[in-house]
Each structure stands twice: as C-alpha cells, then as structure tokens.
Amino acid sequence: MSTHDDRTAQEFWEAHYEEREHIWSGRVNAQLPGILAGVTPGRALDLGCGEGGDAVWLAENGWQVTAVDIAETAIGRAEFAAEARGVRDRITFERHDLSDTFPQGTFDLISAQFLHSTVRLERPQILRTAASAVVPGGLLVVVDHAAPPPFSKKVPHDHPFPSPEEVLADLDLATEEWERVRVEVVDRDGTGPDGEPFTWRDNVMVLRRRA
C-alpha cells in the first residue's frame, strides 16, 4: 500500500491517538455481533484493536482474546476499557506493526475490522498470514470500507477501497480449503460530524477454514 506520510506507521498512529482523549466510540464494530451470532466462543485474534471496543465485546461474550495494535497509546486505552468492564483477564494485549510482525499461535476467529491505513500497511500479506493462523473450522472475518465517508478530509484521493472480490483475489486462498460463508457489500446508516445522515458501505467477508 502506498505511503502518504513521512512518519513511520507507529509515529503516525501514535500522533493520531494523541489528537483526542478518545478516537472511537468504545462500542463493538457494527457488523461483528451479527456475524458471530450463534458461533461458539474460543480463541480470537483482533487485528488493529484500537481502543478495544471489539476486544472487550468479544471477551464479554466468552472469547479468550489476543488484541494487537501498532500504537502504545491505543493499547493503553484498550487495557483501561477492559479493566473497567471486568474482562482484563480474558484479553492479552500485544503491540505489533503487523506489516513486520504477527502474533504467535492459532485461533478460532481472526477479525480484521476496518484495517485501513494511509501509511504503510501490507494488508494482503497481513491477511494471508492471518488466514494461515486460523484453525480448521475457524473463521477469518474481514470488514472494511467500500468507499470513504463523504465528509472525510484525511483520506488521500488515491487511497484504494477494493471490492470484496478484489480483496479475496489478493488473498488467493485455496477454494478447497476455504468456504465463503458471506461475501457482500452491506449498507448501514451513519451520522456525520455535523449530525448529517449518510450511508456507510461496508465490505463484509466471512470465510471458514474447512475442517
């Protein structure tokens, strides 16, 4: 992915989190509860955990979670949220620049929710590595933006927003090893910074590794 900033990826994201006391809502990402409805909890890996909304929700719903982010500031906030909600013992936090290092182990669920960046992020490589760490019968869940929000001023004009099929083509996973549980574009309602309504378009990709 192209780099649009002279800072390292870690410097960029540390500065981003230091802009405000809280960047994200603290709630679980919108698509994840529906995707996991009826799925038996096990070991989960949350890629790019941010301030911990997904990791905490997963832990509250019975998952044992490894949550990773590039920014120490984000991890500190996520740890605080986990402690406040009584699930700190169910989450292991690790700092990784996923373009260079990846958590050890295998997982029943690997979740990449809106793993976008305008600085270096080797996304296809990261998602291929993630796929290799999913146990037979486990899920790889990727949700990302199909397009930027209309009010965004921070996304460079050449920042890619690939379709679900383009994402999966980049991953090049063997069809005999992976089942497409759900691959689609989903619309959801959103509210802009000035209260104006708009429609998010999410790419939703749910793949199950065949047993």
UniProtKB/TrEMBL annotation:
User: What organism is the protein native to?
Assistant: Mycobacterium yunnanensis
GO molecular function, a single term: methyltransferase activity
Listed A to Z, the keywords are: Methyltransferase, S-adenosyl-L-methionine, Transferase
Q: What residues form the membrane-spanning segments? A: none
Which InterPro entries does the protein's record reference? Methyltransf_25, SAM-dependent_MTases_sf
Q: Name one GO biological process term.
A: methylation
Keyword Hydrolase tagged: no
Source organism's superkingdom?
A: Bacteria
Kindly indicate whether the keyword S-adenosyl-L-methionine belongs to this entry.
yes
Task: Describe the location of the Methyltransferase domain by residue ranges.
Answer: 45-138
CDD domains, sorted = AdoMet_MTases
**What is the protein name for this chain?**
Class I SAM-dependent methyltransferase
